[in-house]
Amino acid sequence: MADANAAVLLVTVSLVLLGLVAGLSWSWALLPVGVVVFIFILARGLKSRDEFAHLNVCVLVLGDLGRSPRTKPHQDLLEDDRIEILAIAEHKGFPFGPPILRYVTKVISQSLQLLYVLMKLDDQAYILLQNPPGLPSIAVTWLASRLIGAQFVIDWHNYGYSIMALSHGEKHPIVRVAKWYEKFFGRFADHNLCVTEAMRRDLRKNWNIRASTLYDKPPSIFRETPLKLRHELFIRMGSAYPQFRACSEDKENTELTAFTERNIETGEVTLAVGRPALLISSTSWTDYESFVEAGEHLPPLVCAITGKGPQKEYYEKLIGVKEFRHVKICTPWMEAEDYPVLLGSSDLGVCLHKSSSGLDLPMKVVDMFGCCLPVCAIHFQCLDELVRHEENGLIFNSADELAQQLKLLFLDFPNDHGKLGVFRRNLRESAEQRWDENWDQNILPLFKEHCD
């Protein structure tokens, strides 16, 4: 019980300080006192770990689960028919007042709601939290884990404060508070996971947090696509995007796409002679200038740029005014079940992801490698933990360098004896571990310790 009392005190003091840093009056900053009363009411249900008879794990993500590609497999591997999803409604704080007031009230509201949801959980041996976002979930989850007797595990995908710094700047008071918050409360986790060796070293050196590296691995749905499925996908996409249609009419007894041919009588599908290469890039459309610039110098290509983002319309207009001689570009929004099929049907992937901290790796490339799809990726710190230059792809630093790499890779296309074919064969031979195998080998033993 003393552990729970200390937890309550630390969280309350932190919320008071957050309010004062935000410039709130003492009357507002003392609002967390009400949190204390609320917590002690909930604490009546305090449980001991010894009461748990089964291994129950709560996987917690404060955000859209569909946009959490690493947390979703965690959940899948714990579920079968035993999973229970508890939705947490979004709270936006006060709809009026200065932005800082709305933000602080949102944090306090989320804290109370999250604590209430976690305290209702029965017999949880572990709470596995995705970070980011960590404000307010790290402190609240730690507090709840102390109250219900669960082990607290943080899965560090990145640093939340580094993402906030992209829009506010590193010296903004909120960013500084967020950094202190992550660093301070992150140390209270019972176990820590992270996505790269570089992050593991950084956590140990700068934050005094010991973590185990769990690399992202592709789910089993990401694999090379058989020719029949490729053809069916290209037919469907051709109805909306002319870039996937054949330039000529269907030949007798043959159904054509820009990339494949199907014999109507036998059903046999083959790759079309003289087909263009298919390049895919998934993006949030935040900085795509380098790719557009590179497009002016490319060999015959169909470029499918998937994803959504705030600047998508801007780049679509920019692409529209360009007069590429050999390149056709479309910007489809793929259904979840079609995206892996398109990746597995492509000839090359391009990744323009840059980590806000320089310590996490792009899931897009992980999925591409699951499809044995070679990649050209823009350089940043620790990328070499995933992309091995001249082995499974190429790393570039500028639009000109990307353009030169694309011309080099597609020099003999579709002949597979060049670099592109070598990279694909290397990916096939590596037989990279899948997410479920990785999880069983590295994470399941951690949870099973509770039952031993």
From TrEMBL:
<keyword id="KW-0735">Signal-anchor</keyword>
<feature type="transmembrane region" description="Helical">
    <location>
        <begin position="7"/>
        <end position="24"/>
    </location>
</feature>
<dbReference type="GO" id="GO:0005789">
    <property type="term" value="C:endoplasmic reticulum membrane"/>
</dbReference>
<dbReference type="InterPro" id="IPR026051">
    <property type="entry name" value="ALG1-like"/>
</dbReference>
<keyword id="KW-0597">Phosphoprotein</keyword>
<keyword id="KW-0256">Endoplasmic reticulum</keyword>
<keyword id="KW-0808">Transferase</keyword>
<dbReference type="GO" id="GO:0004578">
    <property type="term" value="F:chitobiosyldiphosphodolichol beta-mannosyltransferase activity"/>
</dbReference>
<comment type="similarity">
    <text>Belongs to the glycosyltransferase group 1 family. Glycosyltransferase 33 subfamily.</text>
</comment>
<protein>
    <recommendedName>
        <fullName>Chitobiosyldiphosphodolichol beta-mannosyltransferase</fullName>
        <ecNumber>2.4.1.142</ecNumber>
    </recommendedName>
</protein>
<keyword id="KW-0328">Glycosyltransferase</keyword>
<dbReference type="InterPro" id="IPR028098">
    <property type="entry name" value="Glyco_trans_4-like_N"/>
</dbReference>
<dbReference type="InterPro" id="IPR001296">
    <property type="entry name" value="Glyco_trans_1"/>
</dbReference>
<keyword id="KW-0472">Membrane</keyword>
<dbReference type="Pfam" id="PF13579">
    <property type="entry name" value="Glyco_trans_4_4"/>
</dbReference>
<comment type="function">
    <text>Mannosyltransferase that operates in the biosynthetic pathway of dolichol-linked oligosaccharides, the glycan precursors employed in protein asparagine (N)-glycosylation. The assembly of dolichol-linked oligosaccharides begins on the cytosolic side of the endoplasmic reticulum membrane and finishes in its lumen. The sequential addition of sugars to dolichol pyrophosphate produces dolichol-linked oligosaccharides containing fourteen sugars, including two GlcNAcs, nine mannoses and three glucoses.</text>
</comment>
<dbReference type="Pfam" id="PF00534">
    <property type="entry name" value="Glycos_transf_1"/>
</dbReference>
<feature type="domain" description="Glycosyltransferase subfamily 4-like N-terminal">
    <location>
        <begin position="56"/>
        <end position="211"/>
    </location>
</feature>
<feature type="domain" description="Glycosyl transferase family 1">
    <location>
        <begin position="298"/>
        <end position="412"/>
    </location>
</feature>
<keyword id="KW-0812">Transmembrane</keyword>
<keyword id="KW-1133">Transmembrane helix</keyword>
<comment type="pathway">
    <text>Protein modification; protein glycosylation.</text>
</comment>
